[in-house]
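Many introductory courses stop at the sequence. We go one step further.
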Amino acid sequence: MALTGNMKINSGRLWDSLMEMAGIGPGVAGGNNRQTLTDFDALGRALFKRWIEEAGMTLGVDTMGTMFATRPGTDPKALPVYMGSHLDTQPTGGKYDGVLGVLGALEVVRTINDLGIKTRHPIVVTNWTNEEGARFAPPMLASGVFAGVHTQDYAYGRTDLEGKNFGDELKRIGWVGDETVGARQMHAMFELHIEQGPILEVEKKDIGVVTHGQGLWWLEITLTGKEAHTGSTPMHMRVNAGLGMARITERVHQIAMSHLPHAVGAVGQVKVFPNSRNVIPGKVIFTVDVRSPDQTKLDTMRAEVERAAHAVARELGLGCAIEAVGHFDPVTFDPKLVKVVRGAAERLGYSHMDIVSGAGHDACWVNRVAPTVMIMTPCVDGLSHNEAEEISPEWAAAGTDVLLHAVLEAAEIVE
């Protein structure tokens, strides 16, 4: 059977599945709060398990709780082709971030079943545990253990804001599997995902062919000044940590702008002490996030931010300490798989463009141990990690159609 442009998924069935999953762990404003290893996560996993069994797939689970649903191939020696993403959400998450990648992959298998297609390589649909990192930091935790970035002991010891640890909560919801993490080998992995940015919608493109993923540096900067009364302390006698943070925030913006294109930077989390209306801040702790798909730019921006922070601190008489609290290098996805995705979009007649992923994804870690690529669909106004996150059924179908064709090409249809 040849791949043809009229070979497409059942878009209505895909959309119905997305909406049914969205009913588990509802948010307060139309989205989802299905954080990892919660009771709602367990319910979502149970629904997904029922669906994969109905599709004739067998389920394996590793000791990080990651779910692997397998459709057999005709060659027992052929490595599987993987596809998937994650079902966990942010506390105020949308219905599609990650979920489209898992349920789109399920729909690919359902469509292959409908068409009676056999493939030489097995096909595996994956739900990675704790991609978001909203409850247990860092994000992409299970795929990080799979790729050897983290140890399982490290992952099991992560705690949430209530002091509960990952290992205990995984056991509590009943999803500790028996497979050794990382023991599986992959022929290829595909991850379908919403863009989480505005580019595809603005450019009126159906498909983003993801060639690279941005690397990042997270820097935690602590500025130490002197607490004093805001009304009675002369301006020239102040040692204002808040002023230092403001100036560094502006410098971070300028540094990112100076390295365009493909460079971003901002100050994110801020803690001000003592955080009182009439006290000049004596200490400020804040994070700087700089990202780029270019390694040289990324490292240069980090160095420039650190120099700028120390210079501002000296000028204002502040103490300054900087700690790198997060990092991963830029990702170059497999060029052969990128070509497969691009060809699938062209075969199907979908408009497309090459794009760089601005966010981290499980595919970024898996790319270290197997050929990997991502496919992106537009989302309204580029909004994500927000209950107002929205996509259209047509966008979902187009991305899943491309996934279908790309996976079948990689898995090799048997006539």
